[in-house]
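Section 3.1: Structural characterization of target chains.
Under the original work plan, the team committed to producing a structural model for every single-chain target entering the pipeline before any wet-lab resources were allocated. The record below documents one such target. The sequence was received from the expression subgroup and is listed exactly as submitted; it comprises 451 residues.
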Amino acid sequence: MKWLLILLMAVAGLGFAQPPGTRPRRPTPLKKAENPTKWPVESLLVEGNHLYTSEQVVALAGVRIGQLAGKEEFDAARDRLLGSGAFETVGYKFMPGPNRAGYVATFQVTEVEPVYPVRFEALGVASPEIETLLHAKDPLFSLKKLPATRVVLDRYVGWIHDYLAAKGHPEKLIARLNPVGTDQFEIVFRPARNYPSVAEVTFDGNTGVPQNVLRDAISGVAVGQPYTEERFRELLNTAVRPRYEARGYIQVKFGSVRTEPVKDVEGLKVFVTVEEGDSFHLGKVAIAGPTPLRPDALLKAAQFHTGEVADFDQIGQGLERIGKAVVRAGYLDAKVTPERVIDDANKTVDVAVHIDAGPRFTMGTLMIVGLDLNGEYEMKRIWSIKQGTPFNPDYPNEFLATVRAQALFDNLGETKSEVERNEREHTADVTLTFGGQASKKKGPSGQLPPN
């Protein structure tokens, strides 16, 4: 046994026959980042966006998933977003990623509003060409929603001008905000040259709608505006057609449009021939396709008048009531669109209502600012939307109005509500701010109506 012990000691001294000068391997420590202020971006989120998708905002920001980035890169991304003219404010925040190998970055934006639809006029090339150009230049571009800020319009005018100049059309361009209906406007990109203006409009062939009604409808959007036939016909459809459709004339056509100079003023007199067709009655109205709420309840809320003249003003109001009901159930981005089915033989029109509900938002957190602990407790007690239940976006202001009407607090002062949407979790956080020295009144508390 003695010889065996000596043998083991000898082997141990040789380190189990390792080559001279070597040591047992140890785990390789993680290398420190060359710049500890930059870490991998695991994911990118956007908060506060309603007009633009998160993908559009991230594309314009210029930060990529997997990129090493820190304050310098995100400051530059913020400057790019602000420089676009589409955002009033831009911020960002970081949180550790799920694997702790990097972080989750979130851009917090406030979009410029209002936004307007876009039209291209007399540019010498097809409009889809210009659309393709602007989509390539600006990830936020949309024909349906463009802010009318000077920085945005000037940049777009420059892009279009350079494109047209390269195609042999180096004409000076302008961008104008033009009316298209009652409280409706659009952004028009067109040559800067002067066009004759509309001075007067006369209609011929109308019997179902009086001349004065038609003139009033078109005058507010056309008189004083530069005239092109394409543009004028669009105004007829947006401003005059609704006057006919409110009386059931859903197949009205605007035939010939001709002009002549006006002698006593500088401008054009426009003559429009109308082909009214027949007046239609409203037939069946039905909810078509999936709906998050009971169809019969939505149709009852809409208050459609079937069997009567198809007044599309009233029908539009009914569709708005349907949309409102869906939104109040938590579907904050719901869209309601009608589809007409015309029965020429019976002179009726059916309406199929399509509802795109989108995601359902639930109540997140409620924050009270400006009250003492007793007041905060009471506000939260009588607030009826519980966390995790469907969020009604009208409720915060209704709640404040009821609190004031029932005089539950002394010295209430100015109040306001703010709602912050979490697009990833589909929740809505509410902040109620009280500006006075409010204090809860003694005695029985008032009761607020349920949401």
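Confidence is low (pLDDT under 50) at residues 1-22, 27-33, 442-447.
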